[in-house]
Amino acid sequence: MSTDPNEGHDPPPGSPEESGEDHGQSAAAASDRVAELEAERDALKDRWIRAEAEMANLRTRTAREVEDTRQYAIQRFARDVVKAAEDLQRGPVSLPASVLEEPEVISRLREGLGGIERSFLAVLDRHEITRQDPTGQAFDPNVHVAITEQPSMDHPPGIVIQAWSSVWLLNGRLLRPALVVVARAPGQQDGGKTTALQADDPPLP
């Protein structure tokens, strides 16, 4: 028979055994709580990162839309301006052919139109609106519109031999393609490239 008076009884409160169990439970609960808080922190951090990315995308998209709208408005205006520039370029064509002893009024008018055209083109150039003469270049469907083909013994097939308008660029990008006449080999059938032209739009000088 055992003589231990504590045998078969729970350890009294405050005993080392009970204190150890309570400490272990508290540590486990604290560890679980830390894990929960870390999970919440990670979730909040992830949502914050996503929100920041969405805001950055929104800012970029909004800025792009504003720029596209601005560029569209500029392009519409620029197309009208370059049409006026080409009309101005055709002005001297309506004058009599230059001769050695032409009337002074004609000479002054010719010089005046030339000066106005140069000033106008300088203004356009300051705003990154530039023109290119396609005459003599190989036909490029990206920047040229062929209004017709013409047999030629003097030019290889596919070369622009006459321009009804220039290639116009805005900030280095195509604003308006050139209307051109393209050389073809004699005897070769016309490719049938035509486009509507106004009667008052002669070829550029």
Automatic annotation (TrEMBL):
GO terms for molecular function: adenyl-nucleotide exchange factor activity; protein homodimerization activity; protein-folding chaperone binding; unfolded protein binding. Its main location: cytoplasm. Residues 1-38 are annotated as: Disordered. Residues 1-10 have a biased composition (Basic and acidic residues). It is found in: Cytoplasm. One of its GO terms (biological process) is protein folding. Pfam families: GrpE. Keywords: Chaperone, Cytoplasm, Stress response. SUPFAM superfamilies: Coiled-coil domain of nucleotide exchange factor GrpE (SSF58014), Head domain of nucleotide exchange factor GrpE (SSF51064). GO terms for cellular component: cytoplasm. It comes from the Bacteria. The keyword Transcription does not apply. CDD domains: GrpE. Homodimer. Participates actively in the response to hyperosmotic and heat shock by preventing the aggregation of stress-denatured proteins, in association with DnaK and GrpE. It is the nucleotide exchange factor for DnaK and may function as a thermosensor. Unfolded proteins bind initially to DnaJ; upon interaction with the DnaJ-bound protein, DnaK hydrolyzes its bound ATP, resulting in the formation of a stable complex. GrpE releases ADP from DnaK; ATP binding to DnaK triggers the release of the substrate protein, thus completing the reaction cycle. Belongs to the GrpE family. This is Protein GrpE. It comes from Roseomonas acroporae. The lineage of its organism: Bacteria, Pseudomonadati, Pseudomonadota, Alphaproteobacteria, Acetobacterales. The gene is grpE.
